[in-house]
Design a protein that fits this description.
Strand content: under 5%
Order of helices and strands: HHHHHHHHHHHHHHHHHHHHHHHHHHH
Radius of gyration: 58 Å
Number of domains: 5
Structural class: mainly alpha
Helix content: over 70%
CATH class of the largest domain: Mainly Alpha
Distance between the termini: 140 Å
Number of strands: 0
CATH topology of the largest domain: Serine Threonine Protein Phosphatase 5, Tetratricopeptide repeat
């Protein structure tokens, strides 16, 4: 079989060449147009038109029938070929006339219209004589019908301008025939309107000076298609009356073995050289030889220069053409797949170089961001790649960090799509939650775009995972270091911002741990300050002990003296407290007796002895503890106790002022509300006033006792504080 295919005399070889000739002619005719006609002509002449003239005529007739708008181009092509191969033009005309007659007999309007139009353009190109145009027009108008008149008018739009210049009497005959049809009413109303419009155009063209029918809508030969000189053209005399003797030669379209195949091929090669010109071929061969010599010399020079480096030169493509083509292939594969499984299967077949996995991740994210709304197709595709290879998972994690860093460049719609895309990957554990470490949720480190991204991301996570599962994941101790920037604890301001942010997006339950930490923060800070002060005091006490080790005798004597003085101070303070309590009790008893004698309904205030006794007991215990504790601790405690006592005294003072104000307001209110005689009202007012005075005296006594007790406690330590003393804390008893 292969041997026969290589043998030029065999039928198999000739069949292969025949099929190649048919395909080549069909391809050239299908691609011809008004712009590339001059370039296609040499290629057509390069094929064996002597052997394939039947194939050429059949192909061009089919192409014209399929695309009637290209009829002028096909006519110009036939006109050029007719100058070198007249038998091709004659065969084409015979086939067209026979086809027109068959279609006219069958009342096949589309074929008649297309064939008549083709014949008209061949008449314009002078391939056919003008008499065939008149014969066709007379045949169509002999028995006028709606279709025949319409075909005749379309035919005259093609050849009318040419016939007016070549054969004016014949043109007037056709015009008179149309007037007769219009006058006798032999056609329908629509056809009469078409004829009337046609005649008006002709009349207008005749009345205007230097006006031609082609300027009024009639077709002629364009300048781009006027390729043949009139003296070079061969015009064929054809007629409808003689068409019965025409032979379409259908056998030329069928393969037949040629016994003289080689001789015919050689003869056509000579014709082709004559048509295309031997000089041009020689020049082209000379140019190609010169170019090849120059290239060979350049290669020799380059080879000589590159010989020391091994004889090979590596070319680096800085235009990234291969990378662009790879991205285009990935994009088309993603967008043309029906589902994510098909897309993943096709993408895995693409040959990727080392480190090019990131291109797939980038293109998937880019395609997802371009959608009008988020499509789960991209999330499932990315999930499949992440679970398939660890390299793709690392690529998508890097893309998350890069996208968050450049999130301010995205539009809102793209931003939402990307956030939901990564939310799907995190919810399915396709990528590691370590990427959340790149999100720092503070007012200073976020923008409006990043806050929208975080909002959409966590809302999608809550929707996919559930709020409880998401909270468990965020509270996992093993993952706490990844979420430190999401729930910052470095300052109360950042903690409040994080809490408020998640609360505003409806995910406040994720911040329960941060809320507890914020509530316990004052206690934690106080404990830290106490620990720091205790450590500083311990260091100071150890320094004092080491410095006083050499003077132990003097320290012991000074301690004994201080103990004696403290005991004497205690006894004096006790005596003072007892005297104060006695005086306060006597004053309270006097007040109570006065109140009971004036008004039996008033109640006596509680005695102040219990408070004084409690204060005295508290001071005695405090003094005992102060003697037992070291000096450093006593200094520390005395400072804190003094601050607490100051707070208590201020609170007592405020409460006393409130009671005084309330006591002054209540008698007036009662006086206004009560109704009765003037004596009864005055008696009630005096009773209220006495009650207010008694309570004021009692408060003064209690305050005096507490101040005396506090002064005893303040000075019982034996060592005065170095800091300033408030006016309320000054010692007033001498």
């Amino acid at each position: 079989m292969l041997r026969e295919a290589k043998d030029e005399t065999s039928a198999q070889y000739q069949r292969l060449r025949w099929d190649a000739l048919r395909k080549s002619i069909n391809g050239l005719i299908n691609k011809v147009n008004i712009t590339n006609l001059k370039e296609v002509l040499p290629e057509i002449f390069g094929e064996n038109l002597d052997r394939g003239k039947g194939l050429f005529c059949r192909s061009i007739m089919k192409s014209q029938m399929a695309s009637p708008t290209f009829t002028p181009v096909f006519a110009a092509l036939v006109a050029v070929i007719n100058t070198k191969f007249p038998e091709v033009g004659q065969l084409l005309l015979h086939r067209l006339i026979l086809q027109f007659k068959r279609a006219f007999k069958r009342n096949d309007k589309p074929i008649c219209l297309a064939v008549s139009k083709f014949i008209g353009h061949l008449v314009n190109q002078q391939v056919a004589d003008d008499m065939i145009a008149f014969e066709i027009a007379i045949l169509l108008l002999e028995n006028p019908s709606e279709d025949s008149v319409e075909i005749a008018l379309e035919f005259f739009k093609v050849v009318g301008a040419y016939l007016q210049d070549v054969n004016k009497p014949g043109f007037e005959i056709i015009r008179g025939r149309l007037n007769l049809i219009l006058a006798e009413g032999q056609a329908e109303k629509r056809t009469c309107l078409l004829i009337q419009n046609f005649l008006e155009v002709i009349a207008r063209g005749g009345k205007l000076k230097n006006a031609q029918l082609n300027e009024l809508g009639f077709e002629s030969v364009p300048k781009e298609l006027d390729l043949v000189e009139p003296e070079d053209q061969i015009t064929h005399q054809v007629s409808l009356e003689e068409s019965d003797g025409y032979n379409a030669q259908i056998s030329l379209d069928i393969f037949k073995v040629d016994p003289e195949y080689q001789e015919n091929e050689k003869r056509y090669e000579a014709i082709k050289k004559e048509i295309l010109g031997e000089d041009e071929e020689d020049e082209s061969e000379g140019d190609s030889d010169g170019d090849s010599e120059d290239e060979s010399s350049d290669e020799e020079g380059a080879g000589g220069a590159a010989a020391p480096s091994g004889g090979t030169q590596k070319i680096q493509d800085n235009t990234e053409t291969n990378l662009i083509n790879l991205r285009r292939t990935i994009y088309l594969t993603i967008m043309s797949a029906l589902d994510f499984e098909e897309a993943g299967h096709k993408l895995m077949k693409i040959q990727l170089g080392p480190g090019q996995e990131v291109e797939i991740a980038t293109m998937v994210i880019e395609c997802c961001s371009q959608e009008k709304s988020y499509s789960k197709y991209y999330g499932l595709l990315a999930q499949r790649f992440c679970l398939l290879k660890r390299e793709y998972q690392a690529c998508f994690e890097d893309c998350f960090r890069r996208q968050y860093a450049l999130i301010h460049r995205l539009e809102t719609n793209k931003l939402r799509n990307v956030a939901r895309f990564f939310g799907h990957l995190l919810a399915t554990d396709a990528i590691s939650w370590e990427v959340i470490d790149s999100v720092r949720l503070t007012e200073d480190d976020t923008t409006s775009s990043s806050r929208i991204f975080i909002k959409v991301l966590f809302q999608d996570l809550s929707e996919n995972m559930g709020l409880r599962s998401l909270n468990e994941r965020l509270q996992d101790p093993s993952l706490a270091e990844w979420f430190g920037n999401l729930f910052p604890r470095d300052s109360p301001r950042n903690m409040r911002f994080s809490i408020n942010f998640f609360t505003s997006i409806g995910l406040g339950g994720l911040t329960d741990g941060l809320r507890r930490h914020l509530a316990e923060l004052p206690k934690i800070l106080a404990a830290q300050r106490e620990a720091a002060s205790a450590g500083a005091a311990a260091e100071g006490g150890s320094g004092d002990d080491s410095s006083s080790s050499s003077d132990s005798d003097s320290d012991s004597s000074s301690d004994s003296d201080s103990d004696d003085s403290s005991s004497s101070d205690d006894s004096s303070s006790d005596s003072d407290a007892s005297s104060d309590s006695a005086s306060s009790s006597s004053s309270s008893s006097d007040d109570s007796s006065d109140d009971s004698s004036s008004d039996s309904e008033d109640e006596a205030p509680p005695p102040a002895k219990k408070k004084s006794a409690a204060v005295a007991a508290k001071s005695s215990t405090a003094k005992d503890k102060a003697r037992e504790e070291p000096r450093g601790d006593r200094r520390e405690k005395s400072g804190s106790e003094r601050a607490a006592r100051g707070d208590r005294e201020r609170e007592d003072r405020l409460r006393g002022e409130e009671r005084d104000a309330r006591g002054r307001k209540e008698p007036r209110k009662r006086e206004r509300e009560e109704t009765g005689t003037e004596n009864g009202g005055g008696r009630k007012y005096r009773a209220v006033e006495r009650e207010a005075k008694g309570s004021a005296k009692i408060r003064d006594a209690v305050h005096k006792e507490e101040s005396s007790a506090s002064e005893h406690e303040r000075w019982d330590g034996g060592v005065a504080e170095a800091g300033p003393v408030d006016a309320d804390d000054r010692w007033t008893g001498e």
